[in-house]
Specification:
There is one protein chain. The chain folds into 3 domains: 5-129; 147-218 and 352-529, Rossmann fold (3-Layer(aba) Sandwich); 235-323, no CATH class. Helix content is 31%, strand content 23%. The protein is built from 17 helices and 21 strands. The chain has a 12-stranded mixed sheet.
Length: 559
């Protein structure tokens, strides 16, 4: 690089950072936090790259001799975090930047500030390292340079996208999805809790799906039913069983036996001997919940022969409350997507059609936006975890040669991947996402955790993520979570979180060669996440009232 601007010489060296003494006052006044510097390396053909983390001016005492008073000397220092090595071009290859330190600078090594064309050239080197980059925006320090992420590494190591309300988080997600839909065989699911991402149906290879509402029927297109028999035994137990009931152990064992019995009957009716020999209570095999309920009633009122007359059976009266809970769940219209009794949902091959709907990446259905807006909040963790578990299981059992990578975009993740558990349903749902975070990469399953409250998101899941897009966060608890996730050698890089502009982000991780402050490009198709302008809306004259319609929707549990 030519026209280098020498700002000073290395004064002290630590493992991951250095101090540079600056003699030129004008240069000291011109440098800013997070500007990029390069330091001469002891190895030929290499330069060490760093980020300015601190600018200091301090007075030091210096005695001329024992008799005279000490003179005050001003010392100008900048603190630099070392982030990688720039290697000169060899033959026809271009310069290459790597996030490794082959050496550390020597004392008195020259330190240069990158500006103008030199800075643009360096940023272009970073952005061109990926063969098929994910363009996300522009670098704040070099707004003529595209900020590209490595799309492979972004999904391989899982990702976190966080930001407070109005920071541009949804736009960033929409931007990434928009770029992904331009690929031929995108395969992603978006857990859309509030219908924010419905406008993205305009994108190519995109389809909208919806978890069934109270009046939806199984023969409707793009409506998802998740019948009770898909739940694992522990999941259905958490949905139906009250552990505080003194008869809970009896109820649990009886439910277990009946599920095994009726799953076995289904396999026998379908002549599935190969499955029958190996199935367990966890196997996703249809059975009729109405038969389970009838058997529970029989056992709850059972009389058995006694020495002189009939006496109550071993479970007489011990299943009454459990039966009431099951009937209550069955009749709850909000749970239509679980307890709908349509024969289509009991077909042995129905699971194939469900997973094809979720995972098929052909016929313009690569990006599936799943609307969870009609799922009751108390069972949201269980249902989102169920979908996650099904996708993981299919990927795990699929032939390696036929496996196609899938990404799960978990919007409002703090609602179903919580840091603190409040019940067994949350625990069962969380277990699915923890397993995806820990093992998903081996089976081509990626997790993108999206939240405005990272302090409320499970720490185990966050710790497994290797990429972070952090937008403006003003809550100290949320800031501290992200600070702890950032690498130690970035020093005070995360201190910018509360002062980021709308649409600005800090990007750190395997997908970004250099920790960067980036202005994210707005998506061409914007999600429904705009903040309401209260003052402007109140100023308008309006005659329409929506209260009656809202009350009816509330009663019907459907918009």
């Amino acid at each position: 690089m030519s026209n280098e601007i020498l700002i000073g010489k290395v004064q002290s060296v630590d493992t991951g950072n250095i101090s540079v003494q600056v003699d030129n006052e004008e240069l000291l006044n011109s440098v800013q936090i997070n500007q990029i510097v390069q330091i001469r390396s002891t190895k030929t053909g290499e330069k060490i790259i760093g980020l300015i983390s601190k600018i200091m001016r301090k007075a030091v005492s210096e005695k001329i001799d024992d008799q005279s008073d000490p003179d005050l000397v001003v010392e100008n220092l900048i603190r630099v975090n070392l982030v990688g090595t720039l290697m000169d071009a060899i033959g026809t290859e271009r310069n290459v930047f790597k996030r490794t330190l082959n050496t550390v600078p020597s004392i008195d090594a020259d330190c240069f500030l990158l500006q103008g064309s030199e800075l643009s050239e360096f940023m272009n080197i970073i952005s061109s390292n990926s063969k098929n980059p994910l363009k996300i925006g522009k670098y704040t320090i070099s707004d003529e340079s595209d900020a590209n992420l490595d799309g492979n590494k972004f999904f391989q190591r899982h990702a976190v996208i966080v930001g407070g309300t109005g920071s541009g988080k949804s736009w960033t997600v929409a931007n990434i999805l928009e770029k992904a839909t331009q690929l031929k065989s995108i395969n992603s699911l978006v857990f859309d809790l509030h219908g924010e991402y419905k406008p993205l149906k305009k994108l190519p290879n995109t389809t909208l799906l919806k978890i069934a509402g109270p009046s939806d029927k199984p023969d409707e297109n793009n409506i998802i039913f998740l019948p009770y028999w898909l739940l694992s035994y522990e999941e259905i137990e958490s949905l139906l069983l009250d552990r505080s009931d003194s008869n809970a152990p009896n109820q649990s064992r009886t439910l277990f036996d009946l599920i095994i019995k009726y799953k076995k009957e289904k396999l026998e009716a379908e002549h599935k001997q190969d499955v029958l020999d190996n199935f367990t209570v966890e196997s996703p095999i249809p059975y009729e919940i109405s038969k389970v309920l009838s058997s529970l009633r029989e056992k709850d009122t059972e009389m058995v022969p006694g020495a002189r007359s009939e006496r109550q059976g071993p479970l007489h009266g011990k299943l009454t409350r459990f039966i009431q809970r099951l009937k209550s769940k069955q009749s709850d219209k909000r749970l239509n997507f679980i307890f709908n009794a349509d024969d289509k949902l009991l077909a042995y091959d129905w699971l194939n059609s469900l997973l094809t709907n979720l995972l098929d990446f052909g016929n313009g259905k690569g990006l599936k936006i799943i609307d969870f807006s009609e799922v009751p909040s108390d069972i949201l963790p269980l249902i989102s975890g169920l979908i996650g578990r099904l996708v993981f299981s299919v990927q795990q059992w699929m032939d390696d040669k036929k496996r196609h990578p899938v990404a799960l975009f978990c919007d409002e993740a703090h609602l179903y991947i919580p840091a603190s558990l409040k019940g067994s349903m949350e625990e069962k749902g969380l277990a699915s996402f923890e397993r995806i975070a820990k093992e998903g990469r081996k089976y081509g399953l990626s997790l993108v955790v999206i939240s405005q409250r990272p302090s409320d998101v499970n720490k185990t899941v966050l710790s497994q993520c290797g990429n972070f897009i952090a937008m403006r966060l003003t809550n100290p608890d949320d800031q501290n979570v992200i600070k702890r996730l950032f690498p130690d050698n970035l020093g005070d890089f995360s201190e910018m979180l509360p002062v980021l502009d709308i649409g600005e982000s800090l990007i750190v991780g395997d997908a970004s060669l250099l920790p960067s402050r980036i202005k994210v490009d707005p998506p061409s198709v914007k999600p429904n996440s705009a903040t309401v302008d209260f003052w402007d809306e109140w100023e308008k004259t309006k005659s329409e009232r929506g209260i009656e319609q809202a009350v009816e929707s509330l009663r019907k549990q459907q918009k």
